[in-house]
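Internal ticket - ligand job 147, DQA:
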Amino acid sequence: IAIHCLNGPNLNLLGRREPGIYGAATLAEIERSLQDHAARLDIALTFRQTNHEGELVTFVQEAGAAGAGVLINAAAYTHTSIALRDAIKGAGVTAVEIHLSNVHAREEFRHVSRIAPVCAGVISGFGPHSYIVGLDALAHLLRGQLP
Ligand code: DQA
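stdout (structure tokens):
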């Protein structure tokens, strides 16, 4: 199976960005451990990041065209982007939403996700491990091992 892990705005700054909230790991370090985990599970993993909403939409469309599942940390676009929601729905991809922080324990504007209704599920609050848990869940879904 193939999975595209898509990362939204400001996640390129992980490691330096609000480490009290997001931890010390860089996005490159998260990618490395996720690639290791994906290899063990025989998953072809593509890892991408962009700061631009429209580019994130294009990434989703490309995952759909490639027949890949989508593991997505849309960062702030989670809470705002109807375009991203439409892209996930329109591309017909199976998607899992992930966050490093527990968005429900933070500001009220982070309690709303525009994309959650078109995702299979949400993993939030486990730091870099959210990526691992999300990948496992998505792989199970794509392999038909979950209802
Ligand atoms: C985030 C949570 C979002 O609310 C925030 O805008 C981010 C990161 C997370 O991974 O915890 O940029 O998606």
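Auto-summary: Residues 2-142 form a domain with the Rossmann fold fold (CATH 3.40.50.9100). Helices lie at 19-22, 27-40, 53-65, 82-91, 129-142.
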